Amino acid sequence: MWRSRTVATLRVLSDQDVRKCIDIKSTLTAVEKAYVAKSSGLAHLYPVIDEKLHNDKAEFDIKSGDWLEQEIIGAKLVNWFGDNSAKGLDTIVGLSMLFDSNTGYPLALINASYITSMRTGASGAIAAKYLAKPDAKVAVVIGTGNQALFQIAFLISALPTIQNIYIVNPRSFDKAQKFTAEVSQKLKMIMEDQIDPENKVWNRRVQAINFLASADIEKALVVADVVITATPSRGSLISKKSIGPGVHINCMGADSVGKQEIDEELFSGARVFTDDLSQSISLGECQTAVRKGILNSNQIIELGDVINGVYLGRESENQVTVFDGTGISLQDISVGKLALDVAIEKNLGQIVNL
Fold first, then answer.
1. How far apart are CA 211 and CA 167, in angstroms?
2. pLDDT for the residue 5
3. Model confidence, pTM
4. What is the torsional sign of CA 76, 77, 82, 88?
5. For 271-285, how does the pLDDT look when each residue is reduced to its tens digit (9 = 90+)?
6. For strand 106-111 and strand 92-100, is the pairing parallel, antiparallel, or unpaired?
7. pLDDT bucket at 86, cuts 50 / 70 / 90
8. d(CA 254, CA 120)
9. CATH number of 9-115+330-353: 3.40.50.720, 2.60.40.1730, 3.30.1780.10, 3.10.20.30?
10. Which residue ranges does the chain devote to CATH 3.30.1780.10?
11. Are 73 and 97 spatial neighbours (Cβ–Cβ below 8 Å)?
């Protein structure tokens, strides 16, 4: 009988372990490093597997890639089950796996739910940091699910100028009001910086934000500097005419074929950015505009290239900018490695011999 020569040892990190290892500040740094590595050709994405379940009310995705400079290969298997919230369950559930790129041996098995929420929040905030007007004060968040909370958390951490945030749920003003009433307390439960273990600085930042529920998307958008869409929508929620000069839009909900949150005509005349060009045109917010010939793929700029100085971000005060955040495996790999490194340092998780 064939026997393995050596035993593979890996660290298993639970959701609670992960929460003790990452915070807003460190996640922002890890995701930005991932963008830079991709732009520099030091890290690579593998093709995405994206499958729909239960009449599009659920999804199963596999995102993977390598970052050989960090000696890591990684994969994330994640499920989105939209009806889970009504059952009192998390809507996003998944696992991340990290492997040693020199040997192929497994290093870690990580609960990916919190990492997914955190890295997606970081992705949007980094885009806003590089693309929004430097004096942006008002944000409009469309969506009241789990990801809306993390988009807000990372935005107000990365953009200290933000003062007012309007919350919109296109289908239910009651849900917008409920989210608005609870958002401050929920934000305070997210650790911004582990060097401030009592979250005192973060709590003051949260308290300084004026949260307002809006029943009318159009009225809220009139005053917007930054717009964030975080929904599973399959149709336009924002018309081109409702977006004024100088607005930056983060489209964070479209991550599979058929999803759409903004009017495809908005791409005409806007400067467009994404985390990954291939994913953007195939399963991101840009897919509809590209398919209809409104947007050419060579007009889409990867955010990592802006950070690396290859391309300019915003070119003028009045320019409308759009970021298509599809979610890339390198974000998961980078934040997963961060969690693993901190877990080793703090001796967290369980060691398993395979």
1. 7
2. 62
3. 0.94
4. negative
5. 999 999 999 999 999
6. antiparallel
7. confident
8. 12
9. 3.30.1780.10
10. 9-115+330-353
11. no
Q: Helix H segments across 83-194?
A: 113-131, 146-158, 173-187
Q: Is there a contact between 313 and 131 (Cβ–Cβ < 8 Å)?
A: yes
Q: Where in the chain is the domain with CATH 3.40.50.720?
A: 120-327
Q: Tell me, what's the pLDDT at 309?
A: 97
Tokens 């390198």 label which residue? 330
Nearest CA among 30, 34, 89 for reference residue 341: 30
Could you count the other beta carbons within 10 Å of the beta carbon of residue 294? 16
User: What class does CATH assign to 120-327?
Assistant: alpha beta
1: pLDDT confidence band, cut at 50, 70 and 90?
Answer: very low
Question: In terms of pLDDT, which residue wins out, 145 or 5?
Answer: 145
Reduce the DSSP state of residue 332 to 3 states and report it. helix
Let me know: does 111 contact 104? Beta carbons within 8 Å.
Answer: no
Using pLDDT thresholds of 50, 70 and 90, give the confidence band for residue 85: confident
Q: Yes or no: say if 117 and 88 are a contact pair by the CB < 8 Å rule.
A: no
Q: What is the mean pLDDT of residues 319-338?
A: 98
Note whether 296 and 303 are within 8 A (CB): no
Q: Select from 96, 104, 132 the least CA-distant residue to 17.
A: 96
- Beta bridge mates, 226: 139, 248
* Cα–Cα distance for residue pair 245/212, rounded to 1 Å: 23
Rounded Cα–Cα distance for residues 146 and 149 (Å): 6
Residue type, 78: V
Q: What sections of 188-302 are H helices per DSSP?
A: 200-207, 217-222, 277-283, 287-291
Question: Do residues 271 and 246 touch, judged by C-beta distance below 8 A?
Answer: no
Convert the pLDDT of each residue in 68-78 to its tens digit: 999 999 999 99
Tokens 């492997």 identify what position? 99
Helices (H), the chain: 15-19, 24-39, 113-131, 146-158, 173-187, 200-207, 217-222, 277-283, 287-291, 303-307, 329-346
Q: How confident is the model at residue 314 (pLDDT cuts 50, 70, 90)?
A: very high
Helix (H, G, I), strand (E, B) or coil at 285: coil
